[in-house]
Specification:
Blueprint lengths: L1 H49 L4
Length: about 55
């Protein structure tokens, strides 16, 4: 009986860990996307700055 409880505890911990991991991965994807957007924005602004005014 004790072993079953232990297994249940472990599986519960594993499922919560995998949820945490998924959340982390989602957060990382969003962060990377934000960085890409920021990089593109800085590139466009620098590109605008570089072009000589007519």
């Amino acid at each position: 009986m004790k072993r079953v409880c232990g297994l249940l505890g472990v599986t519960h911990i594993q499922s919560s860990l995998s949820e945490e991991f998924n959340l982390l991965m989602e957060g990382e994807k969003r962060l990377v996307h934000t960085i890409d957007v920021m990089r593109m924005a800085t590139q466009t602004t620098s590109g605008i700055k570089k072009t000589p005014r007519i």
